[in-house]
Amino acid sequence: MNDALIQAAIEARQFAYAPYSEFRVGAAVEAAGGEVFTGCNVENASIGLTTCAERNAIAAMIRGGETKWTRIAIATENGARPCGACLQVLQEFASDPAQCRAILIAGETPVADFKFVELLPHPFESRG
Ligand code: THU
Q1: With a threshold of 0.90, does the pTM exceed it?
Q2: To test ligand 1's pocket by mutation, which of 24, 49, 52, 55 has the most ligand atoms within 8 angstroms of CB?
């Protein structure tokens, strides 16, 4: 698949700062307005301060003036699914969890395309 969103996630992965785990992650979110925002994981010697690629992409989206996403592409070496913390943050800004898609990429190859609700069927919601 030669989707610009997929290429953006693969490109973002090149910038991952992951000297501790050596597990590089790139993420690209497509905002409801069509614009694409990217992030990579940024590790730290104080391991708990590491930030994930997905959450960094969401932060870039918010900075870009968008508050809803419709698709996310996540590039790793093995097509890993996003962690629970990232899923909860993605939930916050999902335009419609039943329609939003999460595309997983292993190396350069898309290997899965989930509805977001399949990955996080029971999110935390403070308002019920
Ligand atoms: N990581 C992400 O960037 N996204 C996830 O959803 C899970 C994990 C990063 C954090 C750390 O730099 C490396 O992958 C190994 O856990």
Answers
A1: yes
A2: 52
Record the tokens describing residue 57, joined without a space. 């992409």
Q: How far is the CA of 64 from the centre of ligand 1 (A)?
A: 23
Provide the 10 A C-beta neighbour count for residue 51. 17
Encode pLDDT of 68-93 as tens digits.
999 999 999 999 999 999 999 999 99
Q: Which CATH number fits domain 4-119: 3.30.70.2860, 3.10.20.310, 3.40.140.10, 3.30.2290.10?
A: 3.40.140.10
Give catalytic residues, as residue numbers: 54
DSSP symbols for 54-88: HHHHHHHHHHTT---EEEEEEEESS-PPPPHHHHH
Beta strands in the chain (DSSP E): 26-31, 36-40, 69-76, 101-106, 109-115
| Average of per-residue pLDDT across 92-106 | 96
User: Which one-letter amino acid corresponds to residue 58?
Assistant: I
Structure confidence by residue, pLDDT tens digits, 17-64: 999 999 999 999 999 999 999 999 999 999 999 999 999 999 999 999
